[in-house]
Amino acid sequence: MSGRRPTEVRGWHVLALLLAFFGAVIAVNVAFAVVAVRSFPGEDVRRSYLQGLEYNQTLTERRAQAARGWGARAALTEDEGTAVVEVNMIGYDGRPLAALTLNGALRRPTDARLDRDLAFDQLSPGRFAARVSALQPGLWRLRARAVDDAGASLDFESEMTWPPSP
Q1: Which domain holds residue 155?
Q2: 3-state helix/strand/coil string of the chain
Q3: Disulfide check for 130: which of 34, 64, 118, 136 has CB 3.0–4.6 Å away?
Q4: Does 73 lie in the same domain as 35?
């Protein structure tokens, strides 16, 4: 028979186990919170509070844009391994809109650090394209604004997936 005494659980054992358990839970929660805030700070648009205050003006602009009858179709295509954002602008009568300036950004819904500003070139009346290099696979959102010489505009959004499905 060995001379060892059976191990007894004492009060300090229970305290140490409880502190270790809750310490681990708190450490994991803090780590998850830090990763969550770094990957998505919570604000989808800059100065969202100010945009909320100006929302009535936004609604007025949208009604004016709808009355113009302009339309936009966007697609993400591939040309020689490079992503190309193509936009076709049409008027209320279905004809291409020629005298426009198009600005936009390709946004990644899950990570604002991957957002890209786009420089569109007009290929033909109403047809615009912007090349984007080294695009990460997944869902992308195009936010763009077309403005004509008179100052009339159309704001539009389109969701696209890269690489394009065959």
Answers
A1: 69-162
A2: CCCCCCCCCCHHHHHHHHHHHHHHHHHHHHHHHHHHHHHCCCCCCCCHHHHHHCHHHHHHHHHHHHHHCCEEEEEEEEECCEEEEEEEEECCCCCECCCEEEEEEEECCCCHHHCEEEECEEEECCEEEEEECCCCCEEEEEEEEEEECCCCEEEEEEEEEECCCC
A3: 118
A4: no
Q: Which pTM was predicted?
A: 0.68
Residue 97 CB coordination number (10 Å): 22
Query: Residue 50: inside a domain, yes or no?
Result: no
User: Is there a contact between 84 and 77 (Cβ–Cβ < 8 Å)?
Assistant: yes
My answer on whether 99 and 27 are in the same domain is: no
Q: For every one of its 166 residues, what pLDDT tens digit does the chain have, with 9 covering 90 and above?
A: 566 777 888 999 999 999 999 999 999 999 999 998 887 766 666 677 888 888 888 889 889 888 989 999 999 998 888 899 999 999 989 899 888 999 999 998 888 888 999 999 999 999 999 999 888 899 999 999 999 988 888 999 999 998 887 6
Note whether residue 3 is domain-resident: no
Number of domains comprising the chain = 2
Instruction: Indicate if 130 and 80 belong to the same structural domain.
Output: yes
